[in-house]
Every structure is written in C-alpha cells, then in structure tokens.
Design a protein that fits this description.
Shape: globular
Distance between the termini: 29 Å
Number of helices: 5
Strand content: 15-25%
Oligomer: single chain
Largest sheet: 5 strands, mixed
Number of strands: 7
Structural class: alpha+beta
Length: 254
C-alpha cells in the first residue's frame, strides 16, 4: 500500500505566512522616515527654488519627492499584504461593483479599455465591495499591462451565475503573452512577478481576498493566447456574515 500526501498547499501556506512577517517588518522600518524626507525636499524647493537657477536643483528635489512617493506605494503594498483589512460584507450588486471598478481604466490614458460582459441574472448578495474592487483592479491592471505591446490587445471581464449551485464565476482574460511556464504554479506566491517594476504582491493580495469570501481563484491559459483568471464565489443571499471570514485574527495561515 502506497500513500501519497500532497503537501503543496501546506508548503504554500507556510511560505505565505513567512512572507507576511517579512512584509510587516519591512513596512514598519521603511515607513517612518519617508514623510520627513519628502517634506524636507519640498521645503528646499519652496525656499531656494527661486534663488538657485541651476535646473539640476529642481530636478533633484523632484526626483527625491517622486522616489519617496514610489517607496510609499511599495510600503502600502507591503502593509496591505501583511495586514489585510477586516472583511465588511454588505448586500450589494457584484455587477455594479465591477462596473465601478472598470471606470478607473476608462478615464485613464490606457490604450486598452476593458470589456465587461455581465450576467444580469446574478442577484444581489453579501460580499465586501472594497475587497472585490481590489481584486478586479489588480487583475485588470495586470491584464492591461500584459497586452500593451500587442497589436490588437484586449481585456475582458465576465460574470456568470449558477442558480443551482449558488455560485458566481468571474473571469478576467486577455490575449497577452501568457504566464511563463516556470511561473505557472507560483503566480500567487509573494514576490513572484514578471513586471520590471512590480512588487509581486498584487496576486497574493487577490488570492487572500478571494479566500476571505470562501472562494477559489485559478490562473489558466487562454485560448489561443493569453491568460485567464477564474474566480468562483459562493452567493450568500441571507446574512451579512454567511461564510465570509470576517475576522482575520482568527484565521490560521498555516
């Protein structure tokens, strides 16, 4: 008799817990000096900007402020990954929340406008709109980034409701280059990224938010090319708490 135990999920949870502690410490150490650095650079610009005609002075102070802002965004992602907000479910329309999320991309200078195909049979149910917006924003932003060099790039978001199973299916797909084979099984691990300037925390944050809704997320190849993220969430029609893990402090990450 041979018994095989699949330890992949256990090892993944252990790595996520370890990276959570790393992110918490990094965010704490970096965050404190950022504001004084930015304020000092802005003060130098206001006080001496008109007295120093050398353009290098203005360029350097602007660079300091811009780099500090980049560091702040990085720290915010670390903090968000290390301590996700408490889930606050309300009775809402998932389709409307997704539409609101996609408006951010319609107003920008993006070359690709995401398409949304909504299943209008989907009823209102209990979920956290802020968490769902975070999920959609991360996935769509990644998809748009992946198709920026494509000749006819497109990004599509779809919802489909299964009334028998009381499940909603969310798909975010694109026709970009797809996930590299060596990263296919690790895309939801912290600090795994294909972006030059990415932190690798977007998808782990998405995965955690989906799991807080007792859902599942998978990264699949899109046919004939591209990537397809599939999310399945239980549709809870009766109570604000339902199956949601509303208190992260009681959750065992390992």
């Amino acid at each position: 008799v041979l018994v095989f135990d699949d330890l992949q999920l256990l090892l993944s949870a252990q790595r996520a817990a370890a990276w959570t502690e790393v992110a918490r410490r990094i965010a704490h150490e970096i965050k404190n000096p950022l504001t004084p650095i930015s304020l000092a650079a802005q003060r130098l610009q206001r006080k001496f900007g008109e007295q120093i005609p050398d353009p290098a002075f203005e360029d350097c102070t602007k660079m300091i402020v811009n780099q500090v802002n980049d560091l702040k965004n990085l720290v915010n992602e670390f903090s968000q990954f290390a301590r996700m907000p408490k889930t606050k479910p309300i009775l809402a329309s998932l389709n409307e929340v997704i539409r609101d999320s996609l408006k951010l991309f319609e107003q920008g200078d993006k070359a690709v406008t995401p398409q949304f195909e909504a299943d209008e049979k989907l009823p209102q149910f209990w979920f956290d709109p802020d968490q769902i917006k975070r999920i959609i924003t991360n996935l769509v932003d990644n998809a748009i980034e992946s198709v920026k060099d494509a000749r006819q790039g497109w990004v599509k978001v779809q919802t489909a409701y299964d009334a028998n199973l009381k499940m909603v299916r969310i798909e975010v797909s694109d026709n970009g280059p797809g996930i590299p084979p060596d990263l296919r099984g690790r895309v939801f691990e912290p600090y795994v990224t294909t972006k030059k300037h990415g932190t690798g925390l977007g998808l782990p944050i998405v995965k955690r938010a989906v799991e807080d809704h007792n859902g599942y997320i998978r990264a699949l190849d899109n046919e004939p090319v591209g990537t397809r993220f599939v999310i399945e969430l239980p549709v809870n029609l009766t109570t604000s708490q339902g199956p949601l893990r509303s208190d992260r402090g009681e959750r065992n990450e390992t």
